Amino acid sequence: MKASRIAATGVVAASAVLVLSGPAFAHVSVQPEGTAAKGGYATVNFKVPNERDKASTTKLEINFPADHPLASVMPQAVDGWNVKVTKSKLDKPLELHGEKISEAVTKVTWTADGKGIQPGYFQKFPLSIGALPENTDELVFKAIQTYSNKEVVRWIETQEKGQEEPETPAPVLALSAATDDHHGAAASDDTEEGDDAKAAASTSTTEAASGDSSDTTARVLGVVGIVVGVAGVAFGVLAGRRRTNA
Questions:
Q1: Sequence-separated (6 or more) residues with CB below 8 Å from residue 128
Q2: Which has the higher per-residue pLDDT, 121 or 17?
Q3: Measuring CA to CA, how many Å separate 48 from each of 59, 75, 76, 154, 171?
Q4: Euclidean distance between CA atoms 228 and 209, whole angstroms
Q5: What is the C-alpha separation between 175 and 180, in angstroms, rounded?
Q6: φ, ψ for residue 181, nearest 5 deg
Q7: What does the pLDDT look like over 23-78, one tens digit per residue?
Q8: pLDDT band at 83 (very low <50, low <70, confident <90, very high)
Q9: Are 127 and 34 in contact (CB under 8 A)?
Q10: Radius of gyration of the chain from its Cα atoms, rounded to whole angstroms
Q11: What is the pLDDT of residues 66-76, one digit of tens each?
């Protein structure tokens, strides 16, 4: 009897722990598609889960880090959502591809024009961003999630080193080491296309040379055949004359 009570108590306690720890795993986060290299460009996805049973997420606001401004931010269209990109003047202009940039994106806001993110679902919001800073290992974004019941959850707490994860952590994008090519896969594709073009050109040259060689050989053999034929006829004529004289 006691054993049954202890087991039941353990199940209840475990369930309580799962319930209490659930929100910590289901928070707004950001991940790159592939890598996000310093100094380069990347496509990132903000993943937004709906944590409420009786309300939908109808708005998401992502605030960009002011200490590492990004000059280029392009959203990808998301069905059922309207997007607004907000830019602000920079205290210190940036230099991008030899041009000075006096403003940068400070906020991107998605607003649902339908049901939004319903209970039990999540949604990804893609952005193309760059050029990524080279003097930091991560970018911290502050996200604000609004529900259909007007509840607002602010995912803005930063993770302190050596401390437990905060209750509402801000999305953090980890940056990888810089590469020689700051445009990533695009240049790799160009290189492969260039190699393919060279290979094709080399093949064409080889085939042309082979064709020329074949033509030359055929001509030589033709000439030799004609000479042999003429010699044969001459020999026949001489033989006939000798027989007649005899």
A1: 41, 42, 43, 72, 73, 74, 75, 76
A2: 121
A3: 10, 16, 15, 12, 10
A4: 29
A5: 15
A6: -100, 115
A7: 445 799 999 999 999 999 999 999 999 999 999 999 999 999 988 999 899 999 99
A8: very high
A9: no
A10: 37
A11: 889 998 999 99
Residue ranges of alpha helices (H) inside the chain are: 2-25, 185-245
The per-type count for the chain, helices as H runs and strands as E runs, is 2, 11
Contacts with 238 (C-beta within 8 Å, 6 or more apart), sequence order = none
Confidence label for 183 from pLDDT (cuts 50, 70 and 90): low
Backbone angles phi, psi at 120, to 5 degrees: 90, 5
Cα angle, residue 21 at apex, residues 25 and 166 outer, rounded to 5°: 70
Instruction: Please state whether the predicted TM-score (pTM) of the whole model is above 0.85.
Output: no
Best CA proximity match to 60, nearest among 32, 91, 82: 82
Phi, psi of 79 (to 5 degrees): -55, 130
Q: Which residue has the higher pLDDT, 162 or 119?
A: 119
Between CA 100 and CA 200 the distance in angstroms is 41
The token duo for 204 is 């064409």
SS3 183: coil
Task: Give yes or no for a contact between 75 and 92, defined as CB atoms under 8 angstroms apart.
Answer: no
Check if the beta carbon of residue 130 is closer than 8 Å to that of residue 116: no
